[in-house]
TrEMBL record:
This is Uncharacterized protein.
């Protein structure tokens, strides 16, 4: 999935799966 330059809204991003998702998306270039 190409996410470079895209914007994602992740709920529950403070802990757990949400936090891991945010880190992964950010490492792929997502904002």
């Amino acid at each position: 999935m190409k996410v470079d330059g895209k914007v994602a809204i992740v709920t529950g991003a403070g802990t757990g799966v949400g936090a891991a998702t945010v880190k992964l998306l950010a490492s792929k270039g997502c904002r």
